[in-house]
Amino acid sequence: MSAAIQAALGAPRFEALPPLALYIHIPWCLKKCPYCDFNSHERRGEVPEARYVAALMTDLEFALPSIWGRRIVSVFFGGGTPSLFSAGAIDSILAGVRARVPLLPDAEVTLEANPGTFEREKFAAFKAAGINRLSLGVQSFDARFLAALGRVHDEHEARAAAHAAIEIFGNVNLDLMYALPGQTLSDARADTSAALGFAPPHLSFYHLTLEPNTLFHRHPPVLPDDELCADIEDLVDTGLASAGYVHYETSAHARAGFECRHNMNYWRFGDYLGIGAGAHSKISFASRVVRQVRYKSPQQYLEQAERGAPLVEEHEVMRADIGFEFMLNALRLADGVPVGLFQERTGFPLTLVEKELEEAEKRGLLERDHVTFRASPLGRRFLNDLQAIFLPRERAARNVPKKIVAFDHERR
Ligand SMILES: C[S@@+](CC[C@H](N)C(=O)[O-])C[C@H]1O[C@@H](n2cnc3c(N)ncnc32)[C@H](O)[C@@H]1O
Ligand code: SF4
């Protein structure tokens, strides 16, 4: 059957499957932060580490038939707070992964760490276990904002952890947030230069958002207004650009060659297998694309994974949705993507979204030539409006999201 006939029937067709990444979710934290809507749970007593490691392995074995013969290009331990686990547990997980699926020899293997769990020896042991990139949740270097955010660490721990991370791993990301309660332009300047003082290869700056089902949503703190937020964004951009960082994705800045490979795979609509409580997956087969979600509550996940049934939901991605899902991710990238990537990663020709591309161009939100397409400077500023153009009509009618969130690792 020709690609055109298959596409007309509504099924994708892949010449080659997209690269496959592995996400491993660790759902516990020392304390739940008041702004956080991730699947993270305050630890009560000891975390059931050994039981969770075993459940992850049963989960991976359950998933093996759906990724048979494929190689893993990157691994990301996210949370929650993966650094809460012992280095021995991380070592067992990685050894278990290697024994079950081929992992590229130079695969990027990232672990998220919280400065509140920082111990120098532990960082070194994570490295010995095979972690080659550390992502540190600093949020701010200022005691006032760390307190306002309810963080477990103070500014001294933030600095000590950042210093040790750079020394031990080299390949480090620092997560910072801006638009913090009461933050001024000069506060943001101080945080930016404190972060730059460590010269990390990668910096993520997230705009603090008030997410439903969080304490901050119920009791909102006073936040900087839109004008101040825009000024802070300009300040961060200019400061980082003059220090040699490229703002390559909505929230991510990196020195050349240090873009996060794992996240790039999400944004370029690659495949990912997510194991662990609440983890999401997108897996392509020759003529269909499937999304899966695992049980969210750690207790329920443990029980279900142990029974070899970790999935709470599985569905095929429909033709009507796949163009939107591709654009949602790809438009976050400053350089955009090659036009051919659409067909390569969705299994459908670019004509599937031609009308929407034309509208986005007409409104000055998108730029394209024969080689690539990307959000224009206006489109980057009003990214939600640009992404909304690609929202399937019936989905838009059902529920127009106020803020569109891409399927990146942070929301899984
Ligand atoms: C899952 S957390 C991982 C790191 C670790 N749990 C920690 O917080 O140190 C990933 C990052 O998302 C960002 N984040 C979490 N909640 C956010 C919110 N409501 N608005 C903006 N960024 C947020 C923070 O910068 C955080 O470091
Ligand atoms: S922000 Fe990080 S440390 Fe805080 S609750 Fe969320 S996942 Fe845990």
Condensed summary:
The protein has helices at residues 3-9, 49-63, 87-100, 120-129, 143-148, 155-169, 185-196, 215-218, 226-242, 261-267, 298-306, 319-330, 340-346, 354-362, 377-381, 383-389, 393-398, and strands at 20-26, 28-29, 41-42, 72-79, 103-113, 133-139, 172-178, 202-207, 246-249, 252-254, 271-275, 280-285, 288-294, 311-316, 337-338, 366-368, 372-375. The protein has 412 residues and is α/β, with parallel strands linked by helices. The strands form four sheets. It has a nine-stranded mixed β-sheet, sandwiched between helices. The chain has a three-stranded antiparallel β-sheet with strand order 12-13-14. A three-stranded antiparallel β-sheet has the order 15-17-16.
Q: Which percent band covers the strand fraction?
A: 15-25%
User: What is the mean predicted local confidence, pLDDT?
Assistant: 94
**Backbone CA Rg:** 21 Å
Total of helices: 17
Structural class: alpha/beta
Oligomer: single chain
Major sheet: 9 strands, mixed
Helix content: 25-40%
Low-confidence stretches: 400-412
Q: Cofactors and ligands present?
A: S-adenosylmethionine, iron/sulfur cluster
| Shape verdict | globular
Distance between the termini: 36 Å
Count of individual beta strands: 17
Strand order of the largest sheet: 9-10-8-7-6-5-4-1-11
Describe this structure in words.
This protein has helices at 3-9, 49-63, 87-100, 120-129, 143-148, 155-169, 185-196, 215-218, 226-242, 261-267, 298-306, 319-330, 340-346, 354-362, 377-381, 383-389, 393-398, and strands at residues 20-26, 28-29, 41-42, 72-79, 103-113, 133-139, 172-178, 202-207, 246-249, 252-254, 271-275, 280-285, 288-294, 311-316, 337-338, 366-368, 372-375. The protein is built from 17 helices and 17 strands. S-adenosylmethionine binds at residues 35-36, 38, 78-79, 81, 112, 114, 137, 139, 175, 177, 206, 208-209, 211, 410.
